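Quick one before lunch.
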Amino acid sequence: MSEFFKGIDKVKYEGPDSANPLAFRHYDKDEIVLGKRMEDNLRFAVAYWHSFASDSHDAFGPDTFKRPWFGDTMDDAKLKADEAFNFFEIVGAPFFCFHDADVRPEGETYAKSVKRLNKIADIFEEKMAATGVKLLWGTANLFSNPRFMSGASTNPDPDVFAYSAATIKANMDVTKRLNGANYVLWGGREGYETLLNTDLARELDQMGRMLSMVVDYKHKIGFDGTILIEPKPQEPTKHQYDYDVGNVYGFLKKYGLEKDVKVNIEVGHAFLAKHTFEHEVALAAAHGIFGSIDMNRNDIQSGWDTDQFPNNVPEVAMAYYYILKAGGFVTGGTNFDSKVRRQSIDAADLVYAHIGGMDTCARAFKAAAAIIEDGSYDKFLDERYAGWNGKEAQAMLKGERTLEDIAKRVEEEEIDPKPRSGRQEYLENLINRFV
Ligand code: XLS
Ligand code: NI
Ligand code: NI
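Model of the D-xylose complex:
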């Protein structure tokens, strides 16, 4: 039994009227929505780093959390694994995600670090078999250790590129062994602080080479999960290369990887790039590269990437609408890349945070499903573009008309388009009926 979560039982669904702060009011994992269980629709994951590996120090003061497993021995890492799995069961999370650096202390050499990672993976393997908890994605931390300060694959030093390649290999091996559904690459230090010391073209080619090797290795070892890039415009680096979904798509096209790699979209990162989250989801779907999401919001006033749990239904409902329109999650899921606040030092705070996040996502998802089932919004869009179903419109679209052909027809038929309302306020009211 858990020492840390002592006295906290498995969280149950009690329905919207329950006043129990340790119960779900909207997330019933067995509820069928659009023909699927909610657990299979949402595919929630706990982020090992925020909830178990990172302390709460900030620029003005030290850690306030003081978890019993904080330390750098393998015994600490084992205790952390015990309590993390206790927690996954308490909140009923079907998945988790981790970086190598979250789960094992770094060794003195590369080989020793890999050995420790594999030791922890042995423990994970047993615990996953015993609990049924699965791995949504694994990833390598190529940003915390000072060796990566000038980038991982984009480093001016080829030895750092090599070290990064080796580290990615080890993490892909472990992710495959644990049947991970995806493997993520987030390039926190892949970018620059000043263009004055940076050869952009060279660094982008280095990054393209690394990703090509990742894709080759995925095929070689028969890893059938998805390779995901997580875009972010800046922080920690002033300018990151994987700026946003549009940028990543251009990068994938340039290196011929758009069929093999998809994106993991994070709410706060979209916000930092001055996009809405649903914009990023919808654009990824339009390009055929939508993969998975990191569900954590920023503080709207401060503008920082504060990694807070979602708690606002309308804010996430349309994102789930676009995810559903794209066919829903396949290998992806909803990862809470979110952390509790520095004053939230109790074990129960971690539980409240996940209950709130899961309930918010469940309500948003059901609202999105209701918009689809109702059909009036989709009908509006169909009607708005209905002109394109016409014969001449289709001929223009398919490349069967030239500029001269079209000019001739506009002249002959005296075409004179009349403005039509975009009906934004009508649509906002329509969506508000569901959220
Ligand atoms: C940081 C990123 C990171 C990735 C995984 O902002 O969100 O946590 O999700 O490396
Ligand atoms: Ni982030
Ligand atoms: Ni993230």
